[in-house]
């Protein structure tokens, strides 16, 4: 995994200027981000769901991997901040003309783009862009390979904080295909940073990355043991294409062993939160009755996701702008 | 055909909150809609073609069936009302990840979407969404299977009213593939509700639905008889793919029997209006000289279509918002 | 090549109302356009990069040929002028239903569109639209076949003027596939009109159009001779698909003979500007070190391109609006 120097994401005053990974960010900064998101939640409930914070700014959704759902949340967040939004599905455009990633992004920067929201199949792509391609554009990582999905992690943290409060008293289980999940990585880092004392990962051995212990988590291969008395269950989406790879037993077998059902959920605390980054596979990793049940906050997560993205975008824009002014004054 | 309880489309005060079908709507409501559209027509002629009625609202064009033309009219109408617009071509996105229609829409609702403009290949889809999926989001039917296309019908009504006035004195003929036309169904209902005493449908027997009489129309299999002395001719687009199905004779034969030409148009009243929902097939169902001729209002229909969609959107948003407040106060 | 009567692009007062080609435009008008673009450059540097000049106007990007890069620049320019923007990729929509170009555009006009930005594979398409289809909509040519790409030419002129000043003292070389380049044609016309005394085209005989002399240029088949002492080098993108056509030697051979490298660039003036319309093919027509080197203004061209498109759009909108009023008053 790419080492992420803390300063790359922060400006000279320690403010966020890119948002690439949870790794290396302080508890104070994550808490500030959650507080800011809290304040934006109220915007979504207004008759006029807009604030002028990014008015006249150009936000480019640069998606090298198709993801309508994630792109939509960033597009909405940007529009509610009054930004101008450009959607670029790169796989089907410039690179088909043989242009390099480097040239594509340099061109967008030359058009006076202020922010890139980047989704890429390769781990470290957003990091590479922020460090080597367009350091003066605020870069937001919207998912890079198996590496990180930090806005998803922060919306999960907002969900937990709003529904369970203090992280220092919680047991949180992350269940499923940890090996291929950028969400799991980012969530483990965020929970750790925010002081969660009991982070559990529950997965078959074949779906656990090497060195999982470095995250300070407890590993369980048995769902029924791992879920015991947890406050929060974060289910991961099962990438069905993994089935063919031989890493997994049959879909039915996976569901029997690792599926969250009313029966297995009963092993957690009685009011344990049920979370999932979506889109859910009903009957594959989660039972419909649980996904739609009273303990599920899956749709709340979507609502909080808009607020978190608004918070990330406005904070990074502020930090990046302040950095630019600082650099210009220094020159 | 799905039964549509009147109250599903209306709020506690009888205002429009969804717009799914003409069926069950009162003459007063249709007239109010036409009056509102009339007032928006003027907006399209201004230097600044915008009104702030939907500012800060999020309108999602959720198209399960590709239709650039219809999507464009709704997008423009929403933008002229100052809404934020999201275009979602669902066939190529989430459902390819196996997500259900239900989950896709619930997610959009959780993002605080205010309105769904829905196009779907299945009859009753918009109805299903409004009733069972997202009752608190205003749902506008932009065409569902062979069932209904109510905004097209209302723009046809606006065209007739502006160019011919009182519906109670008119003979209107609808010509072509009635069987597969959502436009025809919605138009028959709208004309009936608005008091049109002589609605004629003209089609070969193979392109007429069973039970067509229930609409209170007169059926003609001979174009030359049916067109006699009508005030308005509404041509339907011929879906060429029907040709292969054996329901139709050859394209040439169809044109000879049911095409609107200068010769057949001469059988109608001398100043009879020529209408078509577009896109037209020149030389298939209509002669170019007629489509572009002095009696044609085909391009006017397009202009009126923007105003009608602005009217539908603003009225449904008002009705839905008022319903939400009512429900919240009741709780 | 289509003859372009000067009056088609200009209104009754000689103001721009369409922007189809450089041909026939006066030096004064091109200079006014460059001056206007200069003033918009400042907008791109503001915190709020927006001016309200096109507020409430509807700009349709009507692309019959996919070009994300060009479409993006026009979309951004329109949004910074506060217009509502519709993107229509026509190849994948209406025309697949068999609708004619004529009907598609007439429909957009009926929706009260104010401006069409047109990209088309056929030479003369934008011209045809402005003359025969929608004369009352401002038509901007965003590239038509091998014919013209006038906004690219004007951004090239802005680049030269800002970095080298007076055109009357300059030697400018255009290098590469002149035969298939709409950029080359428009650039030769613009340079001529602006008074450039020494325009050189450098290409193999197989990539030169017949009658190239009519543009008042000097033709060179040898890059090393043609580059001698020029002030500006405009490289053209090599369309690799030409390779198969037998018009070109191998890619390696082309690079050896016509590639701009540090070695060949040294033959030009020591501070000669290096330009390219992008996207560049590194190692095909230009060496990476030259593209990224101190003499390259390739990314500046992109920045200026937004300002030039804002200038073209605002000037054409003004001219078209004034023409409409004039026509209405005359009636």
Overall description:
The structure is a homotrimer of 331-residue chains. With 331 residues, the first copy, chain A, is α/β, with parallel strands linked by helices. Helix content of chain A is 40%, strand content 14%. Chain A has two domains: 6-149 and 303-330, Aspartate/ornithine carbamoyltransferase (Rossmann fold, 3-Layer(aba) Sandwich), CATH 3.40.50.1370; 151-299, Aspartate/ornithine carbamoyltransferase (Rossmann fold), CATH 3.40.50. In chain A, helix 6 (150-164) packs across helix 12 (298-330). Chain A is globular, with a radius of gyration of 20 Å. In chain A, helix 3 links the parallel strand 1 (58-63) and strand 2 (84-89). At the A-B interface, helix 3 and helix 12 of A face strand 2 and helix 4 of B.
């Amino acid at each position: 995994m790419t080492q992420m120097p803390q300063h790359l994401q922060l400006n000279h005053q320690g403010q966020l200027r890119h948002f690439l990974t949870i790794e290396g960010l302080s508890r104070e900064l994550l808490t500030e981000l959650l507080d800011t998101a809290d304040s934006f939640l109220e915007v979504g409930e207004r008759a006029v769901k807009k604030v002028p914070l990014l008015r006249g700014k150009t936000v480019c959704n640069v998606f090298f991997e198709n993801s309508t759902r994630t792109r939509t949340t960033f597009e909405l967040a940007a529009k509610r901040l009054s930004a101008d939004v450009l959607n670029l599905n790169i796989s089907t455009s410039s690179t088909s003309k043989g242009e390099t990633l480097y040239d594509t992004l340099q061109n967008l920067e030359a058009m006076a783009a202020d922010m890139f929201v980047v989704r890429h199949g390769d781990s470290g792509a957003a990091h590479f862009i922020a460090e080597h391609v367009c350091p003066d554009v605020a870069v937001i990582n919207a998912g890079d390979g198996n590496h990180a999905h930090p806005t998803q992690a922060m919306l999960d943290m907002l969900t937990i904080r709003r529904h369970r409060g203090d992280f220092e008293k919680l047991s949180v289980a992350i269940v499923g295909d940890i090996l291929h999940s950028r969400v799991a990585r980012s969530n483990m880092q965020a929970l750790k940073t925010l002081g969660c004392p009991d982070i559990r990962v529950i997965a078959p051995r074949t779906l656990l990355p090497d060195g999982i212990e470095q995250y300070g988590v407890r590993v369980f291969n048995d769902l029924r043991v791992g879920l015991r008395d947890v406050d929060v269950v974060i289910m991961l989406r099962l990438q069905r294409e993994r089935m063919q790879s031989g890493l997994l037993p049959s879909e039915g077998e996976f569901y029997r062993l690792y599926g969250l059902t009313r029966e297995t959920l009963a092993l957690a605390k009685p009011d344990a939160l049920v979370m999932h980054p979506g889109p859910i596979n009903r009957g594959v990793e989660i039972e419909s009755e649980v996904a739609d049940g009273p303990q599920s906050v899956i749709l709340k997560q979507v609502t909080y996701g808009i607020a978190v993205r608004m918070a990330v975008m406005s904070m990074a824009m502020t930090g990046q702008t302040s950095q630019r002014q600082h650099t210009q004054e220094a020159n």
